[in-house]
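Q: Could you predict the 3D structure of Nucleotidyltransferase family protein?
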Amino acid sequence: MIEFLAGRVSPRDLTSEAWSLMFSEARQAGVLSRLGSTLCQSHATEKYLPERLREHVSAAAIQVDAFQRDVHRELAYIQSALSGLQTPVLLLKGASYVLLELPAATGRIFSDIDILVSKPHVGSAEANLMLGGWSTGKLDPYDQRYYREWSHEIPPMTHLRRGTTVDLHHSLAMPTCRIRIDSERMVKEAFPVDTNGFWWRLKDEDMLLHAASHLMLNSEFDRGLRDLWDIDLLFRHFQSSSNSFVEKLIDRSDQIGLTKIIRQALFLANHFFQTPVPEKLISNQDGFFLNLMICASSTRHPETRSGWLAISCALLTYREMYLRLPNRLLALHLAHKASELFKRTEEKKQV
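A: Sure. Here are the predicted structure tokens for Nucleotidyltransferase family protein:
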């Protein structure tokens, strides 16, 4: 699958067994729907795809159409719940791609809708969502403190009837993060999606920078390939819309504090998808860290995954915690996680 996505293998060269393996890899990586949509758009389905796999592509297309309708319906519910809020409501990541009909929305399946309001309005937004049927559920005191005092978002809110989830943010990055990111500036320069004026969006450059920071500063490596595909599609789209996009992106990354992050993310996107990034932006990178990211973001299929996958993910998880939390909070967090692990181990022994 990795070779195919990078354009190093042509559809006509794939055997029936290779097609089957690629679909299995895509399912494990959470990109099967997007792969199916991509094959349909390139007409590779009719020409090269084995007959027995075509139904998977058709099913993926049906799933994507239904999912995007569900997203629009859920956005209407959220808008209704927050309509009285006297502050802009930003739509982030996957849901914003769907609303804006960006190429990155093609075949993208996600589990929650990410929104952002300014910190003074978080309490009102949470209360309004609760009245609309969303709830944070029951969390232990430590997790409540983690979200309420240190995180850039409150605990995820799940609708009691529909089971849909909203992640309510008040910043684009952890306030405790060791990498100083000017999230406030990105939010301040957001603008309305349309004349309706309810939903707001980030600037093009900031949308890509946010996608890059989410990938590089989080530990959701099981969806790393999907997020890199987002970055590739966003970069190609914005670059085709503006000849000066690359220059704007680099200038903006300098202003926001994400220069190193965006260069690393573009390096990885180029590695996996041949993203047309100028060589000067992706040269002279940290080889060890990027090799860990390549390993963690690659295929997770038992037949093709790297033997270093578990180690890579573990090292990157520790890196994520180190970057997110200062030393005192990091020690507290690790102690809490160790205590939880010990309790679970003891409970298993007693069963």
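Q: Anything worth pointing out?
A: The chain has one domain: 2-350.
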